[in-house]
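Try this one yourself first.
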């Protein structure tokens, strides 16, 4: 843990975190998925409207409607996946920043147990035939 206290180590990991936790590309993709969802919703509305106001072959109408519904579902699934990825990255970034802040508060090498630092680093401990420590980053 004392190696974590070095200023160089903290600076290095802060720089790395800028790339690891960046959500800009995901947010662009999220916007595209949201736009696709809106576009397909409008296409479905128009398709239903045209079926209401003119005599269309119903098997052809259903086929086109189902294709649009499938396209909408795919866009919605993509949107939900992207939103989940963004939320996950932001959540992990908060944990990471909490950890780095705790490390930065340690002004000198650790000579004894630090309960606050332990609480920031450790998620939970499993005790059975063996003991397993699970850290907040999932390791």
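Now uncover the answer:
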């Amino acid at each position: 843990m004392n190696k974590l206290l070095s200023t160089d180590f903290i600076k290095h990991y802060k720089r790395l975190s800028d790339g690891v936790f960046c959500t800009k590309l995901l947010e662009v993709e999220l916007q595209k998925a949201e736009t696709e969802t809106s576009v397909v919703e409008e296409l479905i509305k128009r398709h239903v409207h045209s079926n209401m106001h003119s005599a269309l072959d119903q098997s052809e109408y259903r086929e086109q409607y189902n294709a649009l519904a499938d396209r909408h579902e795919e866009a919605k699934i993509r949107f939900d996946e992207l939103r989940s990825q963004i939320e996950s990255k932001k959540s992990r970034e908060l944990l990471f920043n909490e950890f780095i802040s705790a490390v930065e508060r340690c002004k000198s090498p650790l000579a004894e147990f630090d309960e606050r630092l332990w609480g920031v680093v450790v998620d939970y401990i499993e005790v059975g035939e063996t003991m397993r420590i699970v850290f907040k980053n999932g390791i």
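Discussion: The longest helix spans residues 58-105. Residues 2-109 form one domain.
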